[in-house]
Give the backbone structure.
Amino acid sequence: MEIAQPYLLFLGDVPDALAAKTGLGIVDWRPEWCLGQLRLPGCQADAGIADLTIDEAAARGCKTMIVGAVNAGGVLPNHWVAPIVAALHAGLDIASGLHMKLADDPEIAAAAKRTGRKLHDVRHSSERFATGKGTKRTGLRLLTVGTDCSVGKKYTALALEKAMRTRGFDADFRATGQTGVFISGRGAAIDAVVADFISGAVEWISPAAAENHWDLVEGQGSLFHPSFAGVSLGLLHGAQPDAFVVCHEPTRTRMRGVQHALPTIQQVIDLTIACGTLTNPAIRCTGIAINTEKLGEDAARAYCADVAAAHGLPATDPIRFGVDSLVDEIARIWGPK
Amino acid sequence: MEIAQPYLLFLGDVPDALAAKTGLGIVDWRPEWCLGQLRLPGCQADAGIADLTIDEAAARGCKTMIVGAVNAGGVLPNHWVAPIVAALHAGLDIASGLHMKLADDPEIAAAAKRTGRKLHDVRHSSERFATGKGTKRTGLRLLTVGTDCSVGKKYTALALEKAMRTRGFDADFRATGQTGVFISGRGAAIDAVVADFISGAVEWISPAAAENHWDLVEGQGSLFHPSFAGVSLGLLHGAQPDAFVVCHEPTRTRMRGVQHALPTIQQVIDLTIACGTLTNPAIRCTGIAINTEKLGEDAARAYCADVAAAHGLPATDPIRFGVDSLVDEIARIWGPK
């Protein structure tokens, strides 16, 4: 899936910022791609960018309208159809993170057909992938892995991209989840791919590159999550990372959605190396990213210091303390850029 | 997917037995379900059961016609449509292992709608699964795992079902692949499930059962196969096996379809236990199934003896030497039935 930039963000009339978090996340990481937002009367979310009509957005060169908000249930409300159809007629593609497919709405399907514009559903995979081959590709790769779901894997990969680019690295974030695809303009929601093609899809997401190019691959789930470990393993094999960063949320006691306790950081390091060796024998852990949101400042700093000392690796909260220490470790091992 | 029995096997006009191997496999394992075969002029395959017309099959009580043969390319030849439509009108459901969906043929779709009969495409998953929960279910489970794809995992599970039933065990084969679904009448092609639902699908395939009931779960792929390990891991977590049998083909030097060497049997045992512990801490290896097809009789016997001695576990070729030694080990650990 490749989504044309720049974007007009459609936020609908959602009741709060949380319902628009996909759209707000795009503005956070790709402000230069977001020319404006389209909000319907009553919308309580605000991305802090220009309010544009569809015609204004088209005139300024927007190529895609992103449906970056979700109503309760993930369905498409009837009153969102007219602006989507209008955007198609104004020459924009539409990209959506809703559970339902855009083309399942007959009016939207007909308008897309008439105007020849594209409909992207990032939760659904229409791309045909090959099965993974596991053959080593050129270029360097870092994968974020986790002790659980929703512990900061996407954020860490994006923060690394930003910090590495600032320091002169040739580095690209590679999306494997819905929001990530909007942010990178390319990728696939790996959890929506047919099971036989997980690693093959990741080989497509992170293709061969220049020797010193870094792909920062967004991780998913956890090798220790009983619902999603298959996705995580296929992603590990397909990404064949040289480096990985373990993401962890220290106050969580149960894995998301199930009764299982979290694994330790060391267990994740050990199993990631044991399995990752299959497609990259040189795989190594280069750091730990801690989501300390629920800890006070002093406790967060102490926790990171303890984890770093225990594992002999840099440990940081990417949001609170930045990722410079993680980039330092990469520069130490593979060179400054 | 639940397929009504008994079956009429449709073998088309395929040029050899290999093209009808799905149908022949059903007769091997479920002769009592196969009332007859329907062969078109020129068919070079023969399941060795009665040739029946569609009307004869319907009169004898056949509930489903199985498209148990594959033409080159897996497509549906035009001249197979008429007998399929006729079977629908005679009151039979249709189940197919072709790559293309039966309902993608407009005549078949229309006939199914008019007659109210079911179309089953075992290569496609229409079932909606929940995500896996990883919670321990009652009953005992054995999973066949492999050093590679296509090393005898389905055959071993089916042979165990047969031998255990003969010895009075309450045991059911549980299908996770296309041919297996025809043989069990229920199951799902796990490699066709959306990645997020692999372990959840297996939880559906092998539900909670009586305390001394054995599910013999058909394995897929290998934890060491770079194309399919994600499927194998989700299957392991979903099956939460008490016992597993490692299947191996000793003359193979490269894994199927890729450049990677095969893992050792011991590596498979170790990683299966390391990962399987997540959903069943009591998981253990109970034997090794060797596909000795390419070895002479003496070499095969010696190889099995060597493997058994090296691992302290029974090792046998299920086809050549039967699975009694594997059942003995199960009986020794969990009781005779």
Summary: Residues 297-311 of chain A form the longest helix (15 residues). The interface with chain B takes residues 131-135, 190-196, 198-200, 223-224, 226-235, 237, 257-260, 271, 274-275, 278-279 of chain A (CB under 8 Å). The first strand of chain A starts at residue 7 and ends at 12.
